[in-house]
Amino acid sequence: MKLTLILLIMAGLSFGSFVNALVWRIRELESTSSKKKRKVLSPISGRSMCPRCKHELGPLDLLPVLSWVFLRGKCKYCKKPISWQYPLVELIGAVVFVASYLFWPVTLVGTLWIAFIVWLAIITVLLALAIYDLRWMELPDSLVVVLSVFSVIFVLVQFAVQAISVSELISSMFSAGLLFAVFYILFQVSKGRWIGGGDVKLAPALGLLAGSLASVALVVFIASLIGSIIGIPLLIFKKQKHQIKLPFGPLLIIGLLVVFFYGNNIINWYMLRVLSL
What gap in Å lies between CA 197 and CA 200, rounded to an integer? Predict the structure, then answer.
């Protein structure tokens, strides 16, 4: 188990570093039509570089967290500050990878590892979406499509390895469709004021991963609750109240992670304690 945790920490740090580069590259790609520049910025074939001076980075510049510490938070080439985002996201990557293993609902043996590996890919995309939305208040279509594909694969793999039943598979698909429909209606009725178009596109993947109508409702509830906890103090202390905007994507992602690992416990507690009153 110790070796597994060490490997997951290393993988989480590495994929966290990849997320940092990925969100920056996607943002830069959206602002250029140059084929040469797009090739350089490609997340697949492009070489790592400083986002400020564009100097190509060497292997020692790319050590997750450690490079940032050794360089004292500054680029070795242009001496400009490197954002706290980089080590923070790398550490978050390690935490969610390890937490996923520790809180996985079933013992990981044999083919069940396949579903777990797909889940780690999903976690990586979710982290990229959360960071992108926090920085630019957008959910890029490219990442949403990748998440949707991984989510379908995850549910099908779980079904193939008998981690979920036919009824649970159908429930996941129905939840995806219903959450999309609800978000789409909210988007149309409010003309984008209540919920963004990116959140509507994100909904099917969230519904698939949540797995049931009760879990989907809990995801939205947790996201809304966190948004209220953050937003109400801002409304109280901010002078121009009508200009307050919170990205809903990261809140939905946090809600999904809570529900994925603790949803059944929360729902059972609610059914036993609250409904029995």
Answer: 5
